[in-house]
Structure formats: C-alpha cells, structure tokens
Model the fold of this input.
Amino acid sequence: MDEDFGTVSFTSLDQCTREEWALIIRHHEAHYAREGALADEILHVLARQKGPKLGFRVDRYEHSLQTATRALRAGEDEEFVCCALLHDIGDTLSPENHCEVSAAILRPYVSPEHLWMVENHVVFTGYYFFHHSGMDRHEHRKFKDHPAYALTMRFVRDYDAPSFDPDYDTEPVETFVPMVQRLFAQPKGSTWREADTAAA
Done:
C-alpha cells in the first residue's frame, strides 16, 4: 500500500518538478524501507522457476537451490552463495540472455568479480554442451586473463554443472532467505535515486 505522501500532478515526465521528484523518492524509500521488501520480490521471481523441467531431471528452481546448497556446504562466502542461488533467475524472464538479466538484478549488490561470474557463466557451462551444437566448447578460454576467470571456472565446475541431480539432498529455500535479505538490504554503490537527488 502507498504511503500517504500525496501524488504528483504530472502525467508525463517532462512536466516533473524538483518537488515532485522528491515526492517520488520518498515513496520509493518508504516502500523499500520495509525490512526484506526487495528480497521478498527477488524470492518471488525465483519461485516462478518452479514447474517445467524442460527435459532436465529437475526444474530451474531445484537447480538454483541445489547450486546454492553445494556452494554453501563447500564454505563459499555468503555473497557467492546468493549468486549461486540467483545465477539463473533471469531464465524464466529471458531465456536467450538470462545471464545478463540475472547480472542486472545483482549488479548494485555484489562485487565486480561475482557480477562477472554470473554475467558470463553460460560461456563456461558451454564446455559441457557447446560442441553438441557445433560450437566451440573452449570459448571460455577467451577470458583466461580476466581476474574472475578462475572464480567462474570453479563456480561452474563445482556447483552449477553438477546441480541437476533429483536425488541430491538440497537445502530448502528457507536456508537462504536470511542471506538474500542481507544481500539486498543495501546497494554497494550509489543508486539512481541518490544520483538524481545529488544532481538536483
């Protein structure tokens, strides 16, 4: 429910005044100030991956939980585990470029290395199947000098690639909820609201 801050008068952004933009900022801040609000939205999108297995033995939701479970049990840090959980969150929204969608969601909240890992992981998973479609399974090697190359190799090899096992003892989503809440509690960098307020 909207806070009682009032409503702007404009019907087109080119009519927006500084005072009205400040009002919009107040609404956004109040909406997302509720503890866990953004994390709830993210987890809702993740839950939409339940359902079709699309030929795999697990659906995308189980795959995501399983990838995060493997990372957690291996002792990876919390941000890494959240990236493992959400690395395919863009899949149901935009299967052709899901890595970019997933990375865009995570961008304000994770390190550059983890962001690059999510954004490029499909090229690394391609080692296991690109050659079946006449593509170069070694395409990931073009990134061999990137600082996050080894990190992404480990993510795919140890956590992403093996996580299609219906018999694996996967943690429930509740295990990861507090981590996701902490990750999305505060952006690491400036936001569009802060940038626009500063410019004003």
Observations:
- DSSP finds nine helices and no strands in the chain.
- The CA atoms of residues 8 and 131 lie 55 Å apart.
- Residues 18-33 form the longest helix (16 residues).
- The two ends are 28 Å apart (CA to CA).
